[in-house]
Amino acid sequence: MNLVKLNEHLRLERCPFCNVDRPNLAKVWETVPKNSEGHSQGLWRFYECGRCGGIVTAWADDADRYVKGIIPTSKAVSSHIPARASSYLLQALQSLHAPAGAIMLAASSIDAMLKDKGYTDGNLYPRIDKAANEHLITAGMAKWAHQVRLSSNEQRHADQEVDLPTKEEAEKAVNLAQAFGEFLFVLPAMVEQGLKETNPE
Q1: I want to staple 112 with a disulfide (CB 3.0 to 4.6 A). Which of 77, 84, 90, 101 is the partner?
Q2: Which pLDDT band holds residue 149 (cuts at 50, 70, 90)?
Q3: How confident is the model at residue 2 (pLDDT cuts 50, 70, 90)?
Protein backbone atom coordinates (compact mmCIF):
# COMPACT_ATOMS: atom_id res chain seq x y z
CA MET A 1 0.00 0.00 0.00
CA ASN A 2 1.25 3.51 -0.79
CA LEU A 3 1.87 5.64 2.29
CA VAL A 4 -1.36 7.48 3.06
CA LYS A 5 -2.12 9.52 6.18
CA LEU A 6 -5.38 9.45 8.11
CA ASN A 7 -6.41 13.05 7.39
CA GLU A 8 -9.79 14.73 6.93
CA HIS A 9 -9.60 13.61 3.28
CA LEU A 10 -8.25 10.18 2.37
CA ARG A 11 -5.77 10.63 -0.48
CA LEU A 12 -6.12 7.51 -2.62
CA GLU A 13 -5.15 7.17 -6.27
CA ARG A 14 -8.56 5.64 -7.10
CA CYS A 15 -11.88 4.99 -5.41
CA PRO A 16 -12.19 1.25 -4.59
CA PHE A 17 -15.82 1.36 -5.73
CA CYS A 18 -16.04 3.49 -8.90
CA ASN A 19 -12.30 3.64 -9.72
CA VAL A 20 -12.45 7.38 -10.40
CA ASP A 21 -8.97 8.89 -10.49
CA ARG A 22 -7.94 10.89 -7.40
CA PRO A 23 -11.33 10.61 -5.66
CA ASN A 24 -12.71 13.18 -3.25
CA LEU A 25 -12.95 10.99 -0.13
CA ALA A 26 -14.19 13.21 2.69
CA LYS A 27 -14.48 12.08 6.32
CA VAL A 28 -18.08 11.48 7.40
CA TRP A 29 -17.57 9.72 10.75
CA GLU A 30 -14.90 8.39 13.07
CA THR A 31 -14.62 6.17 16.12
CA VAL A 32 -12.03 4.85 18.56
CA PRO A 33 -13.05 1.23 19.24
CA LYS A 34 -11.82 -0.57 22.35
CA ASN A 35 -11.22 -4.26 22.91
CA SER A 36 -12.69 -6.30 25.79
CA GLU A 37 -9.91 -5.07 28.11
CA GLY A 38 -10.64 -1.43 27.31
CA HIS A 39 -7.54 -0.84 25.17
CA SER A 40 -7.84 1.44 22.15
CA GLN A 41 -7.74 -0.18 18.73
CA GLY A 42 -6.64 2.99 16.99
CA LEU A 43 -8.66 5.63 15.19
CA TRP A 44 -11.10 4.45 12.52
CA ARG A 45 -12.49 6.89 9.97
CA PHE A 46 -15.19 6.50 7.35
CA TYR A 47 -14.92 8.43 4.10
CA GLU A 48 -17.55 9.03 1.41
CA CYS A 49 -16.61 9.19 -2.27
CA GLY A 50 -17.89 12.44 -3.74
CA ARG A 51 -18.57 10.71 -7.05
CA CYS A 52 -20.25 7.37 -6.27
CA GLY A 53 -21.14 7.71 -2.58
CA GLY A 54 -19.23 4.56 -1.63
CA ILE A 55 -17.95 4.41 1.96
CA VAL A 56 -14.26 3.63 2.46
CA THR A 57 -12.96 2.72 5.92
CA ALA A 58 -9.39 3.43 7.01
CA TRP A 59 -7.62 3.18 10.35
CA ALA A 60 -4.35 4.26 11.96
CA ASP A 61 -2.86 4.70 15.41
CA ASP A 62 -4.13 8.29 15.48
CA ALA A 63 -5.09 11.23 13.27
CA ASP A 64 -2.46 12.32 10.75
CA ARG A 65 -0.61 9.03 11.19
CA TYR A 66 0.06 6.60 8.36
CA VAL A 67 -2.90 4.38 7.53
CA LYS A 68 -2.54 0.74 8.61
CA GLY A 69 -5.43 -0.62 6.57
CA ILE A 70 -8.18 0.28 4.10
CA ILE A 71 -11.49 -1.49 3.42
CA PRO A 72 -12.27 -2.19 0.66
CA THR A 73 -8.90 -2.27 -1.06
CA SER A 74 -8.50 -0.88 -4.57
CA LYS A 75 -8.91 -3.33 -7.43
CA ALA A 76 -5.71 -4.93 -8.67
CA VAL A 77 -4.67 -7.43 -11.33
CA SER A 78 -2.56 -10.49 -10.57
CA SER A 79 1.04 -10.40 -11.75
CA HIS A 80 0.53 -13.92 -13.17
CA ILE A 81 -1.64 -12.51 -15.99
CA PRO A 82 0.46 -11.60 -19.07
CA ALA A 83 1.33 -7.94 -19.53
CA ARG A 84 -0.94 -7.01 -22.47
CA ALA A 85 -3.98 -8.83 -21.06
CA SER A 86 -3.23 -7.40 -17.61
CA SER A 87 -3.05 -3.86 -18.99
CA TYR A 88 -6.42 -4.19 -20.76
CA LEU A 89 -7.98 -5.71 -17.65
CA LEU A 90 -6.67 -3.01 -15.32
CA GLN A 91 -7.94 -0.32 -17.69
CA ALA A 92 -11.33 -2.07 -17.78
CA LEU A 93 -11.46 -2.07 -13.97
CA GLN A 94 -10.57 1.61 -13.96
CA SER A 95 -13.22 2.42 -16.59
CA LEU A 96 -16.35 1.00 -14.97
CA HIS A 97 -17.69 4.54 -14.75
CA ALA A 98 -17.65 4.47 -18.59
CA PRO A 99 -19.44 1.13 -19.28
CA ALA A 100 -19.05 1.02 -23.08
CA GLY A 101 -15.30 1.47 -22.79
CA ALA A 102 -15.01 -1.04 -19.95
CA ILE A 103 -16.79 -3.71 -22.01
CA MET A 104 -14.51 -3.17 -25.01
CA LEU A 105 -11.42 -3.33 -22.79
CA ALA A 106 -12.70 -6.52 -21.12
CA ALA A 107 -13.13 -8.14 -24.54
CA SER A 108 -9.61 -7.01 -25.50
CA SER A 109 -8.24 -8.57 -22.32
CA ILE A 110 -9.94 -11.90 -23.09
CA ASP A 111 -8.63 -11.70 -26.64
CA ALA A 112 -5.08 -11.09 -25.40
CA MET A 113 -5.31 -14.01 -22.95
CA LEU A 114 -6.35 -16.43 -25.69
CA LYS A 115 -3.56 -15.19 -27.95
CA ASP A 116 -1.07 -15.74 -25.14
CA LYS A 117 -2.29 -19.35 -24.98
CA GLY A 118 -1.59 -19.79 -28.69
CA TYR A 119 -5.06 -19.09 -30.11
CA THR A 120 -4.08 -16.47 -32.66
CA ASP A 121 -5.82 -17.43 -35.92
CA GLY A 122 -8.89 -15.57 -37.12
CA ASN A 123 -11.02 -13.24 -35.07
CA LEU A 124 -12.21 -13.69 -31.50
CA TYR A 125 -15.33 -15.73 -32.37
CA PRO A 126 -13.61 -18.90 -33.70
CA ARG A 127 -10.82 -18.62 -31.15
CA ILE A 128 -13.30 -18.74 -28.26
CA ASP A 129 -14.95 -21.81 -29.81
CA LYS A 130 -11.62 -23.51 -30.45
CA ALA A 131 -10.50 -22.88 -26.88
CA ALA A 132 -13.72 -24.47 -25.61
CA ASN A 133 -13.49 -27.44 -28.02
CA GLU A 134 -9.94 -28.09 -26.86
CA HIS A 135 -11.03 -27.78 -23.21
CA LEU A 136 -8.87 -24.76 -22.43
CA ILE A 137 -12.06 -23.10 -21.15
CA THR A 138 -15.45 -24.51 -20.23
CA ALA A 139 -18.51 -24.37 -22.49
CA GLY A 140 -20.11 -21.95 -20.04
CA MET A 141 -17.11 -19.63 -20.16
CA ALA A 142 -17.24 -19.72 -23.97
CA LYS A 143 -20.94 -18.80 -23.98
CA TRP A 144 -20.31 -15.93 -21.56
CA ALA A 145 -17.29 -14.78 -23.60
CA HIS A 146 -19.45 -14.66 -26.74
CA GLN A 147 -21.92 -12.41 -24.91
CA VAL A 148 -19.10 -10.03 -23.99
CA ARG A 149 -17.72 -10.22 -27.54
CA LEU A 150 -21.12 -9.29 -29.00
CA SER A 151 -21.57 -6.44 -26.52
CA SER A 152 -18.13 -5.15 -27.41
CA ASN A 153 -18.89 -5.32 -31.14
CA GLU A 154 -22.13 -3.39 -30.63
CA GLN A 155 -20.24 -0.60 -28.87
CA ARG A 156 -17.35 -0.52 -31.35
CA HIS A 157 -19.72 -0.25 -34.31
CA ALA A 158 -22.02 2.22 -32.53
CA ASP A 159 -25.12 0.19 -33.34
CA GLN A 160 -27.99 2.70 -33.26
CA GLU A 161 -30.54 0.03 -32.33
CA VAL A 162 -28.68 -1.04 -29.20
CA ASP A 163 -28.96 0.79 -25.88
CA LEU A 164 -25.80 1.98 -24.22
CA PRO A 165 -24.62 -0.56 -21.62
CA THR A 166 -25.20 -0.06 -17.92
CA LYS A 167 -22.55 -0.18 -15.22
CA GLU A 168 -23.94 -3.56 -14.14
CA GLU A 169 -23.44 -4.94 -17.65
CA ALA A 170 -19.89 -3.59 -17.68
CA GLU A 171 -19.19 -5.19 -14.31
CA LYS A 172 -20.35 -8.57 -15.67
CA ALA A 173 -17.99 -8.23 -18.64
CA VAL A 174 -15.07 -7.26 -16.43
CA ASN A 175 -15.90 -10.10 -14.03
CA LEU A 176 -15.61 -12.53 -16.94
CA ALA A 177 -12.22 -11.15 -17.94
CA GLN A 178 -11.09 -11.53 -14.34
CA ALA A 179 -12.43 -15.10 -14.27
CA PHE A 180 -10.52 -15.87 -17.47
CA GLY A 181 -7.34 -14.56 -15.90
CA GLU A 182 -7.87 -16.57 -12.72
CA PHE A 183 -8.72 -19.75 -14.64
CA LEU A 184 -6.01 -19.55 -17.30
CA PHE A 185 -3.10 -18.05 -15.38
CA VAL A 186 -3.54 -17.44 -11.65
CA LEU A 187 -4.87 -20.86 -10.60
CA PRO A 188 -2.26 -22.82 -12.63
CA ALA A 189 0.49 -20.68 -11.08
CA MET A 190 -0.87 -21.36 -7.60
CA VAL A 191 -1.03 -25.09 -8.30
CA GLU A 192 2.54 -25.10 -9.63
CA GLN A 193 3.77 -23.20 -6.58
CA GLY A 194 1.89 -25.54 -4.25
CA LEU A 195 3.44 -28.59 -5.89
CA LYS A 196 6.92 -27.09 -5.55
CA GLU A 197 6.33 -26.42 -1.86
CA THR A 198 4.98 -29.91 -1.12
CA ASN A 199 7.45 -31.76 -3.36
CA PRO A 200 10.72 -29.81 -3.30
CA GLU A 201 13.42 -31.23 -5.55
Answers
A1: 84
A2: confident
A3: low
Query: For residues 162 and 101, which has the higher predicted lDDT (pLDDT)?
Result: 101
Of 106, 104, 113, give the one whose Cα is nearest residue 83: 113
Is residue 67 packed enough to be buried (19+ CB in 10 Å), middle (13-18) or exposed (0-12)?
A: buried
For residue 178, the number of C-alpha atoms closer than 13 Å in the C-beta half-sphere is 15
**Strand segments (E) across 66-167:** 69-71
Q: How far apart are the first and last CA of the chain?
A: 34
CA 67 from centroid of its chain's CA atoms: 22
68-83 residue pLDDT tens: 999 998 777 888 999 9
Nearest to 23 by CA among 48, 57, 2, 46: 48
Q: What angle do CA 40, 43, 45 make, to 5 degrees?
A: 145
Residue 78's contacts (CB-CB under 8 Å, 6 or more residues apart) are: 86, 181, 182, 185, 186
Q: How many residues does the chain have?
A: 201
Amino acid letter, residue 98: A
